[in-house]
């Protein structure tokens, strides 16, 4: 019905334009025919336009929501992995647990070695576990280094200089009164012999560190 009405209207328009000159009349007829053809071929109602706009808005919102969901899904939580805790030790010292150790380059007798450690706010090395002992042995290597153990005689127990009795975690070899450490264990010696020494002191301030440094 709409197409028929459009055709009738167009015919009426054509009839009213016959009074114009021929060339202008033909141009006007062509324009009006084009308008009529467009209305017939592409009839658009306001309802269809509104539906098209609504559909475009819904599709756009869906694409945005999908993009946000994918970006959130691909983000992985950052897990911080920290290394073991080592004490914050002064320069030239090596840390293990809550202790700092200093390995001397000089060689002196037991008494001088203890005095040297005390001047640094420490004492000759003490160890509380096999872990600490093995750590010290590894760094001492083939050298002989004084440690804190001493005794009054072969009939007396080994003690640290704070008078705490040694728990014989590892036996001390020999018959002398002062102990020194080697890469293979603990031995005793006369205190006047010149050897390297190891100082130790506690330090409760710890930080994340990749491992002990070399000395």
Describe this structure in words.
The protein is α+β, with helices and mostly antiparallel strands and 215 residues long. It folds into 2 domains: 2-74, no CATH class; 85-208, Mannose-Binding Protein A, Chain A (Roll), CATH 3.10.100.10. Helices cover 40% and strands 18% of the residues. Strands 2, 3, 4, 5, 6, 7, 8 and 9 form an 8-stranded mixed beta sheet that branches. A two-stranded antiparallel ribbon has the order 1-10. α1 (2-16) runs antiparallel to α2. The protein starts with a helix and ends in a 7-residue tail after the last strand. Residues 9-20, 74-84 and 205-215 have low confidence and may be disordered.
Give the count of structural domains: 2
Beta content comes to: 15-25%
Assign the CATH architecture of the largest domain: Roll
Total beta strands: 10
**Ends: how far apart?**
102 Å
The coarse silhouette is: rod-shaped
Largest sheet: 8 strands, mixed
Average predicted local confidence, pLDDT? 75
CATH topology of the largest domain: Mannose-Binding Protein A, Chain A
Helix content: 25-40%
